[in-house]
Write a structure and sequence with these properties.
single chain, TIM Barrel, 2 domains, eight-stranded parallel β-barrel, two-stranded antiparallel ribbon, disordered N terminus
């Protein structure tokens, strides 16, 4: 079963529905507030996803966050997320050309009392103060709310673009009550971005790709610890880290099947184990998981609610699998590969677009992102020489092959 791929049987549905409590799925019980989730509850009350402190902000967020590009048909999903305590909601101004934010707006129009239960996160594409202001105003209007809990600059790869202008703007937006907290998301050059952010003193939150593949490197452990010590709230994304970015089909191979068998013995799916590996790191406040259907929501929520812990042996199994399949996964270290081609192709971005297509099975999103690249880049990237980039790649990725496949697959 792959949560990202959406393969979920009737037996899986019944199992996870039981784990979160069938009453919480079918009954009209409303979501508990952050304070109520932390209070002592008796066993007659529905189980909900736990919460953790979000850095030094004073806010507490659900350890499982609802991520994805939402459509009007997801209204029931949003309501159910609240019922089981998934109160961290993540979107962005550019998801589906704004349709995702509009869907959340329709939800808050229909269920106005639910706005105070949600820790709402959205993102702006640029860091320029003028654009930040315009983007925030658009997001507020679309989502029918007077404030955003956490406002991000989206996809930061150069930490020095988080400048004083953004700081001044964020302080003003906070003073006006339009945002509560400010930060950024990052997919690539993450260690450098986190290292700088930890020293700034005014970043409230960061969303980063963080999973069983990259969380154990010495560089990542150090910068995450620095950010945690600085009081920055950390949200993990891309936690499944599915190694399917090459030409292989999305079906289990021998290594994956072995991993599946190891966790099945403990009553866990591989996907649950991957989530728990991140939750075991209490420096991470929440996991933002791509969940756009009820089956994925219930499966992930069941993992968040149950009290099963990973053993050292379980962690070792994941580490071993990560080593064995490293050449199928891009960790976003663009500063290593992209200089070898004079930054002519955003290699790690293209790798992520392939992930959208091959792992999330969201070809339209992948194509849309790919078409956002300059046309001259798309035209020449299939014929460039990537040998030096491949030689330096710590993961041993077949970069040239992937770039050529992207030109064909995402055209």
């Amino acid at each position: 079963m792959s949560l990202e791929d959406g393969n979920f049987s009737r037996r899986d549905f019944i199992k996870t529905a039981g784990a979160v409590g069938i009453g919480s799925i079918l009954s009209p019980v409303e979501s508990l507030s952050f304070a109520e989730q932390n209070s002592d509850t008796d066993e007659s009350k529905p189980k909900v996803v736990p919460v953790r402190p979000f850095g030094k902000t004073g806010a507490k967020v659900s350890i499982l966050g609802l991520g994805g590009a939402f459509h009007w048909s997801n209204i029931l999903l949003l309501k159910q997320a609240l019922k089981i305590g998934v109160t961290y909601w993540d979107t962005a101004s550019d998801y589906d050309n704004g349709e995702s934010e509009k869907t959340i707006g329709k939800f808050f129009e229909k269920f106005q009392e639910d706005r105070k239960k949600v820790f709402l996160v959205t993102k702006s594409q640029l860091s320029d103060p003028y654009y930040l202001k315009k983007s925030l105003e658009t997001s507020l209007e679309r989502m029918k709310t007077s404030y955003i809990d956490l406002f991000f600059i989206h996809q930061v790869s150069d930490p020095y673009k988080i400048n004083r202008g953004a700081k001044t703007w964020a302080e003003g937006a906070k003073s006006s009550g339009k945002i509560r907290f400010f930060g950024f998301s990052t997919h690539k050059n993450m260690e450098q971005c986190l290292q700088v952010a930890a020293k700034l003193g005014w970043i409230d939150g960061i969303m980063l790709s963080y999973n069983f593949r990259n969380m154990h490197t010495e560089k990542m452990k150090k910068v995450v610890d620095n950010c945690h010590s600085a009081g920055i709230g950390l949200t993990a994304m891309k936690t499944m880290a599915t190694g399917k970015w090459g030409t292989e089909k999305v079906t289990p191979n021998d290594k994956e099947q072995n991993l599946f068998n190891q966790f099945k013995k403990k009553g866990l799916t591989v996907e649950q184990a991957k989530l728990k590996a991140v939750w075991d790191d209490h420096r991470i406040a929440s996991i933002c998981s791509h969940m756009t259907n009820m089956r994925n929501l219930l499966a992930n929520a069941s993992a968040a609610i149950d009290n099963k812990m990973l053993s050292d042996q379980d962690i070792d199994h994941l580490k071993q699998y990560a080593r064995e399949t490293a050449s199928n996964y891009c960790t976003g270290c663009a500063y290593i590969c992209e200089p070898t081609i004079n930054y002519e192709v955003p290699v790690t971005d293209v790798m992520r677009y392939l992930m959208y297509s091959r792992c999330y099975r969201d070809l339209e999103r992948a194509k849309s992102a790919f078409k956002g690249l300059p046309s001259e880049v798309r035209k020449r990237m299939g014929n460039m020489n990537y040998k030096e980039a491949e030689r330096k790649c710590p993961q041993g990725l077949s970069i040239g092959r992937s770039m050529r496949e992207a030109v064909i697959e995402l055209a």
